[in-house]
Amino acid sequence: MAQTPAGNSSVVVPATASGGALREWLDAFNSADSAKLRAFYGRWRLARNVSTTLGFRRETGGFDLVSIERSEPRYIEFVVRERNNADNRALGIMEIAPGDTTLSQSYINIIPPGLTTAAFRIDAATRTHVIDNAIAQLDTNYVFPEVATKMAARLRERAKQGAYDAIESGPTFATRLTEDLQGVSHDRHLRVNFFPRVLPSRREDDGPPPDQRDREATTQSCAFVRTDTLPGNVGYLKFNGFNSADVCGEIASRELDKLANTTALIVDLRENGGGDPAMVAHISSYLFDGRTHLNDLWTRRTNRTEEFWTHEVQGPKFGGSKPIYVLTSSYTFSGAEEFTYNLKNLKRATIIGETTGGGAHPVDGHRIDDHFVIGVPFARAINPYSKTNWEGTGVTPDIRVPAAEALATAQRMIAERARP
């Protein structure tokens, strides 16, 4: 292990595989070049939203390297300084998986004011406590009890083998637990996360905490990136998340109203990571003439099924027989997959692009301790027509093309359809 003191004015990036990945990431991030970022994510098989990354780049102005906190051939911890605000520092971690083609960990988190990198450190007692409480939450809430039992056995086995003994980093421990849990469940919604600040306490019967991200999203148009009318009177709608319908429903309606009189509609979900099932239903309500059954969710703890239908909306609809094209990528996930899967099964849209990520279980966050949270999938989607869902398989497009070619393919199909 090599270490450079924080604040060192001349930081030498180690000539290791992890050091090379760090250099490559800093170059791509600081360039603010979407093509470079996509190339970096593709090189290391990272499913990341380039638009979100570019937003973070604008907010920070880029990063300058301050220190190397820990260096191993495939693992590196480092501190960077924001260019827009030199008082803001962030801790980063990169780890290369065997095979040299995947970053098993790519982490960056602003160091909260008043804290240092010590806030990211954990000890043996914390590791034991986190494992025990993660298992308890899985036993109580995970959608498939038999899989929860297998995951508990896996964590205990790994702990007994000493697999976690050398981990002193909270983010790295969260990553290891996530890898081991997903290795059994293959459930990409299931995650352990670490937060350097002490989390607010919460009783289980209080329900889920307010989603601050949704409220902040209203200042960013609720993830609606572009609403436009393309040549040929073709509507184009790109949004990168299904934020809370309660918070963002009016904004969604406003954007859909702009496209009601177009003759065809392209919905771009290539960078959409999902969100609220109620928002899926709200947006879908503008695409059907009559009340339509979209999806069901069965919850393990209550053994109850909730149905999701379209509903009456104010303003014009993009209904009838006007064609809809949904663009997908391997990043398209969760609620974005539900939207795609629903429209595909209802034969309301043509899906163009790549097979989606394969996450069909809605998730709820549970506080493990002051710094760790586990996201536990608690229910499963049941499509009323296929009687199954897209968990683990993703949604297969009708027209399979690389994600980068999906928009041009949709435009070509619409033009061909319009020819006499």
Structure notes:
The protein is of the alpha/beta class. It folds into three domains: 95 residues, Nuclear Transport Factor 2, Chain: A (Roll); 74 residues, Transcription Regulator spoIIAA (2-Layer Sandwich); 167 residues, 2-enoyl-CoA Hydratase, Chain A, domain 1 (Alpha-Beta Complex), CATH 3.90.226. Helix content is 33%, strand content 23%. The chain contains eleven helices and 16 strands. The strands form four sheets. A six-stranded mixed sheet has the order 6-7-8-11-12-16, sandwiched between helices. Strands 1-2-3-4 form a four-stranded antiparallel sheet, sandwiched between helices. A three-stranded antiparallel sheet has the order 5-14-13. Helix 4 runs antiparallel to helix 5. The N terminus is likely disordered.
Distance between the termini: 69 Å
Mean pLDDT score? 92
What is the oligomer described by this structure?
single chain
| Second rung of CATH, namely the architecture of the largest domain | Alpha-Beta Complex
The CATH topology of the largest domain: 2-enoyl-CoA Hydratase, Chain A, domain 1
Helix content percent band: 25-40%
Strand content: 15-25%
What would the principal axes of the Cα set say about the shape? globular
By DSSP, the count of extended strands is 16
Unreliable stretches (pLDDT < 50, length at least 5) are 1-9, 203-219
What's the helix-strand series? HHHEEEEHHHEHEEHEHEEEHEEEEEH
Q: How many helix segments?
A: 11
Total domain modules = 3
Biggest β-sheet description = 6 strands, mixed
Strand order of the largest sheet: 6-7-8-11-12-16
- Using the CA coordinates, give the radius of gyration: 23 Å
CATH superfamily of the largest domain: 2-enoyl-CoA Hydratase, Chain A, domain 1
